[in-house]
Amino acid sequence: MQDLAPPPATLLDATGAPQKGAYAGRIASAEFKGARLGGWRKKAWRYAGVFRDDLAIGAAIADLGYLGLTFVYVAEGGRFYECAWKSPAAAGMRVGAADGTSVALAPGRMVTLATTRAGGVTVSLALPGIRADLDIEGGATPLTVVSDVGGVAGRTGMTVKSAGLLTRGTLCVQGRSYTLDDARACLDFTQALFPRRTVWSWATAGGIAADGRPVGFNLARGVHDDAHGRFSENALWLDGTPAALPAVTFTAAPGATPWTIRSADGAVDLRFQPRGERAEDVNFLILSSRYRQPFGSFTGRLRDARGREVRVEGLPGVTEDHAALW
Fold first, then answer.
1. What is the CA 48 to chain-centroid distance, rounded?
2. Rounded to whole angstroms, how far apart are CA atoms 231 and 147?
3. pTM of structure
4. Residue range 268-286: average pLDDT?
5. How many helices (H) and strands (E) does the chain have?
6. What is the structure's pLDDT at 93?
7. Which distant-in-sequence residues (6+ apart) come within 8 Å of 206 by Cβ?
8. Does the structure show a pLDDT above 80 at 39?
9. Residue 217 half-sphere exposure, CB side, CA atoms within 13 Å?
10. For the chain, first and last CA: distance in Å?
11. Which residues contact 252 (CB under 8 A, 6 or more apart)?
C-alpha cells in the first residue's frame, strides 16, 4: 500500500495522457480535453453528505449529458423526506469544476453547492418542505484520484473526495428547525468517461473517533481502482490530512442487515449498521440504474499507509450500492 503523492499541476501531461495516481491535494488544472470517447459522453456529479448522530442530509447534482439528476434527502430520527427530479439534457442543472459552483433549478426548487475561497463548500437548499444554509469548512486536504474507470483502458476518470469536514448552519424540514454546529460533511466531485456498464460500492463517514480525534474516511470498489493495485480512492483523514487505505471488499446487505467492509490485511475492519436508505430503480431504453444509499453508522478500526490507526464507534455516514447501464 503506497501513500498519497503530491498532485501534479495538470490532469493531462505534455503528451495529453492522464496522470494516473492517488494524490493528497487538488489538481490545479483538471479539465478533460474533449468530452467524448468512443461515442459516450463525459458524466459528472457533485455530492455533499452532512451527518450527525440524529440527522443525515444528502444532496447531489449529476449531469449525464442526455439526462440531469438532482436529489436531496433529510433523515431525522425515524422520518425521511426527499425531493428529486430529472431533466432531459440536464436542462436547469450545471455541474461546475471541482473548485467551482454546481446548481440545479426548477420551479420552486433550488440546490446550490459552491466552493468558497477558503476551499470549503456552501450548501443552499430551497425545496418544498426542506430549506438549509450550510457552511462546510475549508482547509482540509482533499484526495484526488485519476484512473481508468472500472479498469477499462482509455475511460479516464477523476474524483475529488473529502471526509470529516466540520459543518455549521441551519436546517428547516417540514417546519422543524435545527442548528447544526457539530455536524460533519463528506464531499464528492467526480467526472469521468464511464464505461457503458458500471458497478460500484462506496462508503464514507465523518465525526469523532473513539479517542476524541476528528476523523473521516472514504472507501470504494469498482470505479477508481488501479488495475495493478498501486492506488485506489481509499483514504483516512486524521486532523484534516488524508493517507491511503488498502483495497477493501464490501459485503452489502439488504434492509437493516449490517454491512461489512474489510481489507485482506486487516487494516480496515468495519461494520455498518443501516437505519434507513435512499433507493431508486430506473429502467429506460438506453439507461438503467439500480441505486441504494443507506445511511447509518460505522464501528470498527482503520489503519492507513502511515501506520496511523483509529477506532470508530457509531460514526455516522453512508454506504452506496450502484449498478448502472448508461
1. 7
2. 9
3. 0.95
4. 92
5. 0, 24
6. 98
7. 51, 163, 164, 165, 184, 185, 186, 214, 215, 216, 217, 237, 315, 316, 317
8. no
9. 34
10. 32
11. 201, 259, 292, 319, 321
HSE toward the beta carbon, residue 270, CA cutoff 13 A: 36
| Cα gap 207→212, rounded to integer Å | 9
The pLDDT tens digits for 297-318 are 999 999 999 999 999 999 999 9
Residue 18 CA to residue 147 CA, distance in Å, equals 8
> Which residue ranges form the domains of the chain, and what is each CATH number?
43-325 (2.40.370.10)
At residue 240, the 3 state secondary structure works out as coil
For the segment 125-131, the average pLDDT, to the nearest whole number, is 98
Closest by Cα among 250, 106, 121, 229 to 184:
121
Note the residue count of the chain.
Answer: 326
Tens digit of each residue's pLDDT (9 = 90 or more) over 249-259: 999 999 999 99
Q: Where are the beta strands (DSSP E) in 64-137?
A: 67-76, 79-88, 93-94, 101-106, 109-115, 121-127, 130-136
CB 209 within 8 A of CB 186: no
**CA 109, CA 299: separation in Å to the nearest integer?**
36
Return the bridge partners of 121, or none. Answer: 115, 136
CA–CA distance, 304 with 33 (Å, rounded to integer): 34
Cα dihedral 71/50/186/279 (nearest 10): -40
Give the residue-averaged pLDDT of 154-183. 95
Can you read off the three cell numbers belonging to residue 319?
454506504
